[in-house]
Design a protein that fits this description.
Distance between the termini: 30 Å
Mean pLDDT: 95
Low-confidence stretches: none
Shape: globular
Radius of gyration: 18 Å
Length: 229
Protein backbone atom coordinates (compact mmCIF):
# COMPACT_ATOMS: atom_id res chain seq x y z
CA UNK A 1 0.00 0.00 0.00
CA UNK A 2 1.18 3.49 -0.84
CA UNK A 3 0.08 6.30 1.46
CA UNK A 4 1.22 9.45 3.24
CA UNK A 5 2.99 7.30 5.84
CA UNK A 6 4.58 4.95 3.29
CA UNK A 7 5.08 6.39 -0.17
CA UNK A 8 7.55 3.82 -1.55
CA UNK A 9 8.37 0.14 -0.84
CA UNK A 10 11.26 0.47 1.60
CA UNK A 11 11.96 -1.19 4.93
CA UNK A 12 10.23 0.36 7.94
CA UNK A 13 13.61 0.40 9.68
CA UNK A 14 15.65 1.32 6.61
CA UNK A 15 18.92 2.25 8.32
CA UNK A 16 19.75 5.25 6.11
CA UNK A 17 20.60 8.84 6.93
CA UNK A 18 18.39 11.62 5.56
CA UNK A 19 20.96 12.29 2.84
CA UNK A 20 21.15 8.61 1.91
CA UNK A 21 17.41 8.13 1.66
CA UNK A 22 17.18 11.30 -0.45
CA UNK A 23 19.83 9.75 -2.72
CA UNK A 24 17.78 6.53 -2.83
CA UNK A 25 14.62 8.41 -3.85
CA UNK A 26 16.50 10.28 -6.56
CA UNK A 27 18.05 7.10 -7.95
CA UNK A 28 14.88 5.01 -8.06
CA UNK A 29 11.94 7.43 -8.11
CA UNK A 30 12.89 11.03 -8.95
CA UNK A 31 15.86 10.91 -11.33
CA UNK A 32 15.34 14.49 -12.52
CA UNK A 33 15.64 16.04 -9.06
CA UNK A 34 18.67 18.32 -8.61
CA UNK A 35 20.04 16.94 -5.32
CA UNK A 36 23.10 17.96 -3.32
CA UNK A 37 23.93 16.16 -0.06
CA UNK A 38 26.28 17.78 2.45
CA UNK A 39 28.25 14.97 4.06
CA UNK A 40 28.45 14.35 7.78
CA UNK A 41 31.71 14.79 9.66
CA UNK A 42 32.78 12.78 12.68
CA UNK A 43 30.16 10.06 12.23
CA UNK A 44 30.31 6.46 11.10
CA UNK A 45 27.74 3.77 10.52
CA UNK A 46 28.45 1.82 13.71
CA UNK A 47 27.60 4.77 15.99
CA UNK A 48 24.39 5.08 17.96
CA UNK A 49 23.14 8.60 18.64
CA UNK A 50 24.48 8.45 22.19
CA UNK A 51 27.97 7.98 20.76
CA UNK A 52 27.91 11.36 19.00
CA UNK A 53 27.96 13.50 22.15
CA UNK A 54 25.30 15.73 20.59
CA UNK A 55 22.19 16.94 22.44
CA UNK A 56 18.99 15.18 21.46
CA UNK A 57 16.46 17.40 19.70
CA UNK A 58 12.92 16.05 19.44
CA UNK A 59 12.22 15.17 15.77
CA UNK A 60 8.60 14.91 16.94
CA UNK A 61 6.82 15.99 20.15
CA UNK A 62 6.28 12.30 20.91
CA UNK A 63 9.90 11.21 20.43
CA UNK A 64 11.56 12.68 23.53
CA UNK A 65 14.65 10.43 23.76
CA UNK A 66 16.93 8.25 21.61
CA UNK A 67 15.33 5.25 23.33
CA UNK A 68 12.00 6.26 21.79
CA UNK A 69 13.62 6.24 18.36
CA UNK A 70 14.91 2.71 18.91
CA UNK A 71 11.44 1.31 19.60
CA UNK A 72 9.43 3.61 17.33
CA UNK A 73 9.69 1.56 14.08
CA UNK A 74 7.56 -1.10 15.77
CA UNK A 75 5.80 1.03 18.37
CA UNK A 76 4.11 3.20 15.76
CA UNK A 77 2.15 0.13 14.62
CA UNK A 78 0.09 0.37 17.81
CA UNK A 79 -1.43 3.54 16.35
CA UNK A 80 -3.42 1.20 14.11
CA UNK A 81 -5.10 -0.36 17.16
CA UNK A 82 -7.22 0.79 20.10
CA UNK A 83 -4.32 0.02 22.48
CA UNK A 84 -2.64 3.14 23.85
CA UNK A 85 0.84 3.63 22.41
CA UNK A 86 1.68 5.88 25.35
CA UNK A 87 0.83 9.24 23.87
CA UNK A 88 0.00 11.47 26.81
CA UNK A 89 2.79 9.96 28.95
CA UNK A 90 6.42 10.98 29.35
CA UNK A 91 7.65 7.90 27.41
CA UNK A 92 5.39 7.43 24.37
CA UNK A 93 5.91 4.21 22.37
CA UNK A 94 8.03 2.81 25.19
CA UNK A 95 4.93 2.73 27.41
CA UNK A 96 1.81 1.05 26.04
CA UNK A 97 -1.28 -0.70 27.36
CA UNK A 98 -5.00 -0.38 27.91
CA UNK A 99 -7.78 -0.30 30.47
CA UNK A 100 -8.52 -3.83 31.66
CA UNK A 101 -5.08 -5.26 30.87
CA UNK A 102 -3.10 -7.09 33.58
CA UNK A 103 0.32 -5.46 33.22
CA UNK A 104 2.22 -8.09 35.21
CA UNK A 105 0.94 -11.02 33.20
CA UNK A 106 1.43 -9.09 29.99
CA UNK A 107 5.07 -8.27 30.85
CA UNK A 108 5.75 -11.89 31.78
CA UNK A 109 4.43 -13.08 28.43
CA UNK A 110 6.45 -10.49 26.48
CA UNK A 111 9.68 -11.32 28.32
CA UNK A 112 9.13 -14.99 27.51
CA UNK A 113 9.12 -14.28 23.77
CA UNK A 114 12.91 -14.30 23.71
CA UNK A 115 13.71 -10.88 22.24
CA UNK A 116 17.12 -10.22 23.76
CA UNK A 117 17.17 -6.51 22.80
CA UNK A 118 14.19 -5.62 24.99
CA UNK A 119 12.83 -6.07 28.50
CA UNK A 120 9.23 -5.39 29.53
CA UNK A 121 8.43 -3.88 32.96
CA UNK A 122 4.81 -3.80 34.20
CA UNK A 123 3.49 -0.30 34.72
CA UNK A 124 0.31 1.67 35.40
CA UNK A 125 -0.23 4.96 33.60
CA UNK A 126 -2.87 7.61 32.99
CA UNK A 127 -2.64 9.36 29.61
CA UNK A 128 -3.10 13.13 29.75
CA UNK A 129 -4.42 13.15 26.18
CA UNK A 130 -5.20 10.85 23.21
CA UNK A 131 -6.40 7.25 23.78
CA UNK A 132 -7.80 6.50 27.26
CA UNK A 133 -7.41 10.18 28.21
CA UNK A 134 -7.67 10.40 32.01
CA UNK A 135 -8.26 6.67 32.50
CA UNK A 136 -5.98 4.36 34.49
CA UNK A 137 -4.33 1.88 32.17
CA UNK A 138 -2.04 -1.04 32.78
CA UNK A 139 0.65 -2.21 30.42
CA UNK A 140 4.41 -2.21 30.13
CA UNK A 141 7.41 0.06 29.90
CA UNK A 142 9.64 -1.45 27.26
CA UNK A 143 13.35 -1.04 27.90
CA UNK A 144 15.42 -1.14 24.71
CA UNK A 145 18.82 -2.77 24.98
CA UNK A 146 21.26 -2.23 22.11
CA UNK A 147 20.19 -1.10 18.66
CA UNK A 148 16.69 -2.56 18.75
CA UNK A 149 17.08 -4.38 15.45
CA UNK A 150 13.92 -6.46 16.02
CA UNK A 151 11.67 -3.62 17.18
CA UNK A 152 9.16 -4.17 14.35
CA UNK A 153 8.94 -7.91 15.02
CA UNK A 154 8.61 -7.35 18.76
CA UNK A 155 5.62 -5.04 18.48
CA UNK A 156 3.98 -7.36 15.96
CA UNK A 157 4.49 -10.16 18.49
CA UNK A 158 2.92 -7.91 21.12
CA UNK A 159 -0.15 -7.41 18.95
CA UNK A 160 -0.35 -11.16 18.29
CA UNK A 161 -0.17 -11.80 22.04
CA UNK A 162 -3.03 -9.42 22.75
CA UNK A 163 -5.16 -10.89 19.97
CA UNK A 164 -4.64 -14.40 21.36
CA UNK A 165 -4.57 -13.83 25.13
CA UNK A 166 -6.81 -10.77 25.56
CA UNK A 167 -9.75 -11.39 23.21
CA UNK A 168 -11.78 -8.24 22.74
CA UNK A 169 -9.16 -5.91 24.23
CA UNK A 170 -7.22 -5.25 21.03
CA UNK A 171 -9.40 -3.92 18.23
CA UNK A 172 -8.29 -2.29 15.00
CA UNK A 173 -8.61 1.45 14.47
CA UNK A 174 -10.72 2.55 11.54
CA UNK A 175 -10.13 5.24 8.91
CA UNK A 176 -9.80 8.12 8.37
CA UNK A 177 -6.13 8.19 9.34
CA UNK A 178 -3.27 10.27 7.90
CA UNK A 179 -5.22 11.38 4.81
CA UNK A 180 -6.40 7.81 4.09
CA UNK A 181 -10.18 7.33 4.09
CA UNK A 182 -10.63 3.71 3.03
CA UNK A 183 -7.79 1.42 4.12
CA UNK A 184 -7.31 0.43 7.77
CA UNK A 185 -4.69 2.52 9.64
CA UNK A 186 -2.69 -0.58 10.60
CA UNK A 187 -2.56 -1.74 6.99
CA UNK A 188 -1.08 1.50 5.68
CA UNK A 189 1.40 1.61 8.57
CA UNK A 190 2.69 -1.89 7.82
CA UNK A 191 2.20 -1.47 4.07
CA UNK A 192 -0.02 -4.44 3.24
CA UNK A 193 -3.30 -6.17 4.00
CA UNK A 194 -1.70 -9.53 4.82
CA UNK A 195 0.02 -8.97 8.15
CA UNK A 196 -3.17 -8.76 10.20
CA UNK A 197 -4.21 -12.21 8.96
CA UNK A 198 -0.79 -13.59 9.87
CA UNK A 199 -1.03 -12.16 13.40
CA UNK A 200 -4.47 -13.70 13.91
CA UNK A 201 -2.90 -17.15 13.54
CA UNK A 202 -0.92 -16.69 16.79
CA UNK A 203 2.53 -17.04 15.20
CA UNK A 204 5.71 -17.67 17.20
CA UNK A 205 8.34 -14.96 17.64
CA UNK A 206 10.56 -16.80 15.16
CA UNK A 207 7.79 -16.85 12.57
CA UNK A 208 7.19 -13.11 13.04
CA UNK A 209 10.91 -12.34 12.68
CA UNK A 210 10.92 -14.36 9.46
CA UNK A 211 7.83 -12.48 8.25
CA UNK A 212 9.43 -9.07 8.85
CA UNK A 213 12.55 -10.27 7.05
CA UNK A 214 10.75 -10.80 3.74
CA UNK A 215 12.49 -8.89 0.97
CA UNK A 216 15.21 -7.50 3.23
CA UNK A 217 18.11 -9.05 1.31
CA UNK A 218 16.85 -7.50 -1.92
CA UNK A 219 16.32 -4.13 -0.22
CA UNK A 220 19.81 -4.19 1.33
CA UNK A 221 21.29 -4.80 -2.11
CA UNK A 222 19.15 -2.09 -3.71
CA UNK A 223 20.14 0.54 -1.13
CA UNK A 224 23.87 -0.26 -1.32
CA UNK A 225 24.71 2.26 -4.11
CA UNK A 226 22.99 4.99 -2.06
CA UNK A 227 24.99 4.58 1.14
CA UNK A 228 27.35 7.50 1.65
CA UNK A 229 29.20 6.32 4.78
Amino acid sequence: YESFVGRFPIAVRHGMTVGEIATYFKKYHFPDVDLTVLGLEGWNRSMMFDDTGLPWTHPSPNMPTPDTARVYPGGCLLEGTKVSEGRGTCRPFEIFGAVGLDGRRFATRLNALGFEDFRAQPISFQPTFHKYHGDRCEGVLLHGIGAGRHSVALYLATIADLLHNEPGLLTWSQPPYEYEYEKAPFDILIGDNLTRSMLAQNPSAAEIIAWTGRGMAEFAEKRMPCLLY
